[in-house]
Amino acid sequence: MSILSNKRIILGVTGSIAAYKAADVASKLTQANAQVDVILSSAAGKFITPLTFQSVTGRRAYTDIDLWGNEAHVLHVGLGHTAVLIVIAHCTADRIV
């Protein structure tokens, strides 16, 4: 049994060629029985698609449009309240600042 079993983790993916490696991170977290919700920045969408993350996690992957659309006030709050950990994998310099 993994310490991540049934823990909800938000994985933020930023715009870098390393976004491809984030799919491996999502896959490994899922294999450890974590529930991984992926949020891609608009720049990340230029390198990798939400479908890739949906395939490895079995869960919907979100984009900026999903989080700032009509349901945004409900969706992003819900994701934040249920997560035990937020990971920005392969964080780019403009996200750190």
Question: Could you list some keywords that capture this structure?
Answer:
about 100 residues, alpha/beta, Rossmann fold, 4 strands, globular
CATH superfamily: Flavin prenyltransferase-like
Mean of residue pLDDT values: 86
Poorly predicted spans: none
Count of DSSP E strands?
A: 4
The main β sheet shows up as: 4 strands, parallel
Number of folding domains? 1
Order of helices and strands: EHEHEHHEH
Please give the order of strands in the largest beta sheet: 3-2-1-4
Q: Strand fraction band?
A: 15-25%
Distance between the termini: 37 Å
**Radius of gyration (Å):** 13 Å
CATH domain class? Alpha Beta
CATH architecture: 3-Layer(aba) Sandwich
* Count of helical stretches: 5
CATH topology: Rossmann fold
- The structure class reads alpha/beta
Helical content, roughly?
Answer: 40-55%
Task: Please explain how this structure is put together.
- The chain is α/β, with parallel strands linked by helices and 97 residues long.
- The chain has one domain: Flavin prenyltransferase-like (Rossmann fold).
- Helix content is 41%, strand content 21%.
- The protein contains five helices and four strands, in the order βαβαβααβα.
- The protein has helices at residues 19-31, 50-57, 64-67, 72-82, 93-96, and strands at 8-13, 35-40, 61-63, 85-89.
- Strands 3-2-1-4 form a four-stranded parallel β-sheet, sandwiched between helices.
- Strand 2 (35-40), helix 2 (50-57) and strand 3 (61-63) form a beta-alpha-beta unit.
- Helix 1 (19-31) packs parallel to helix 2 (50-57).
